[in-house]
Design brief:
alpha/beta, Rossmann fold, Hypothetical Protein Tm841, Chain: A,domain 3, 2 domains, six-stranded mixed sheet, 8 helices, 14 strands
Length: 332
Amino acid sequence: MKRLINDGYDVVEEMIEGYVQAHSDYVHLNPEDGRVILSNYISKEPKVRIILGGGTGHEPLFHGYLGENLGDAAVLGNINTSPSPEPIYNAAKAVDSGKGCLYLFGNYSGDVLNFEMGIELAEEEGIKADFVSIKDDIYSSENFEERRGVAGDIIVFKAAAAAAAKGLELEEVKVVAEKANRNTFSMGVALSSATLPVTGEPIFHMEDGEMEVGMGIHGEPGIERTSLKKADEIVVSMLDHIFVRTGLKKDDEVRVLINGLGGLPLMDQYICYRKVNQVLTNKGIKINGSLVGNYATSMDMIGMSITLVKLDKELKEYLDAPVDTPYMKINN
């Protein structure tokens, strides 16, 4: 195992401790719950609070997006595992201002179950709460409602938080989050497995020189496993699948996200972005903003994902609204 850790059973707590120390100007730990991180930018004025959450191992998801005009709290589970209902409830208890809380997380069965139970606990205490489970991985299912969430999470986080900052009601913020989700399309490729800290073993086996197109962020099966191809070929193949789902056409506008899964160098990510830019330009599709980097990882997995966000005037407004967090900064 090529990891710099101490005891594999302590990685979550030690990571949280280090993160809060490193970014103490943005966040602090909930003194009542060591799995809940809180933003330092929670305003006193009543507004819908945005709570992000899911398993650890995907840093900077979810706590990396707490700060001014983005997430108000993050709830963290064990590696690749949903947080339990109690900290989910504790997050709402810590940040609610009377206008309710919207939970945002990837669409995985364990997360859906536990967040629903946490919301029930909050509602029993008189806290209004709802959720959107994010579904941007286009290969994971033909049925939108069954798709899993990957790097497109951050697009939904951003749009929902901007709507909340604007003063919209809980039901309205949820509509914005769902719209952002419906217009966000992702697909990934993996060249290796991630390594589990407790065992030191890979989650799944891949031979050197193999790749799997369509693989999920936890190692869920993709379309096919083949020998490693050149970057341009991989990008074209992935975009072909995405185009089928998006219906994008000439003069449409998109936001582009190239997301590294933890082990892929930035050099390679920019080489992939170069080809995405070329393909979109040749199709007459306008690029309105780009992100390249590690935004939603899978520990040390070598791989990347491509996300295209189909834009309209409303989504551009929300995605361009100013934010200040450790891993996302927009100044207008």
